[in-house]
UniProtKB/TrEMBL annotation:
Domain ABC transporter stretches: 6-243
Protein species of origin: Planomonospora venezuelensis
Keywords assigned: ATP-binding, Nucleotide-binding, Transport
Pfam family, one: ABC_tran
GO molecular function, one term: ATP binding
Record protein name field: Putative ABC transport system ATP-binding protein
């Protein structure tokens, strides 16, 4: 069995034709080990979402190959691809994407029911407790705060024990402290549960929660950083033309010493350490 959760080999993605043609990805090769937390950064239009969508089997590369675990995605027809995504990928989006008519339990167990599987009650209880929602299971999304809704989305992503959780700007709609809580939970999913997480973000502070940051520019993978702090990530982004960087002011999301929040493990501990 491969030790990589995701592998992209020479992946290109071209949209449109002729003068309208856009090269969203230009020969991206990268392997993401199991149990790692990877952030994907780059200026607007650099190909971050396209990268995430191709890696997750939501979009098909123009050329090159993508493996999710041991399975090469281009070999699958649409039905098998949908089944594979349900089994092997969890998703967390900026806009939460919960079903308004379902309560917390209904939303969290939805991927299992769509796959025709019965929820394992102990695992469901554990996942809901890990995101701190054990006393909210009967609430509907409209009765929850944004941060709580994103925690439901995270539990929904984790409940199938996926190969990878793909997160696209998961803190983009959250305030600083709530964002820190959600990032602490993603970190905890990696450290305590061995989950693999791939997260697209514009925020250097959010990216600093990851073990590894991939930098895209013009559809190409141009750099990477390991265990980097927010200021170093912000400076690299500024070099790539992402945005201007003033040291210490790029912080939008509160960052508790990220290792402490991860090992302390609770929602409250992460927020507390950040002074939220
Ligand atoms: N469906 C599509 N049709 C045509 N062009 C597209 C499509 N999707 C993306 N693109 C183009 O591909 C390039 C990469 O887009 P992508 O959304 O991956 O970038 P991004 O880095 O996620 O951007 P942002 O940070 O602004 O969300 C952009 O030039 C975009 O306009």
């Amino acid at each position: 069995m491969t030790t990589h959760a995701v592998r992209l080999n020479a992946v290109t993605k071209t949209y449109g034709r002729g003068t309208e043609q856009v090269h969203a990805l230009r020969g991206v090769t990268v392997a993401l080990p199991r149990g790692g937390f990877t952030a994907v950064m780059g200026p607007s239009g650099s190909g971050k979402s396209t990268f995430l969508h191709c890696a997750a089997g939501l979009d098909t590369p123009t050329s090159g190959t993508v493996h999710l675990g041991d399975t090469e995605l281009s070999r699958l027809d649409e039905t098998r691809l949908t089944e594979l995504r349900r089994a092997k990928a969890g998703f967390v989006f900026q806009a939460f994407n919960l079903v308004p008519a379902l309560d917390v339990t209904g939303n969290v167990t939805l991927p299992l029911r769509l796959a025709g599987l019965r929820p394992d009650r102990d695992w469901l209880r554990e996942v809901v407790a890990r995101v701190g929602l054990e006393d909210r299971t009967g609430h509907r999304p409209a009765q929850l705060s944004g941060g709580q809704q994103q925690r439901v989305a995270l539990a929904r992503a984790l409940v199938t024990r996926p190969e990878v959780v793909f997160a696209d700007e998961p803190t983009g709609a959250l305030d600083t402290c709530t964002a820190a809580e959600v990032l602490g939970l993603l970190r905890q999913a990696v450290d305590a549960m061995g989950q693999t997480v791939v997260m697209v973000t514009h925020d250097p502070v959010a990216a600093a929660y990851a073990d590894r940051v991939l930098f895209l520019a013009g559809g190409a993978l141009v750099d990477e950083a390991w265990s980097a702090g927010a200021d170093a990530i912000g400076r690299r982004m500024a070099d790539l033309g992402g945005y201007g960087h003033r040291p210490g002011t790029a912080r939008r999301t509160a960052v508790p010493g990220r290792r402490e929040s991860a090992v302390a493990g609770g929602v409250a501990s992460g927020a507390g350490a950040a002074g939220c």
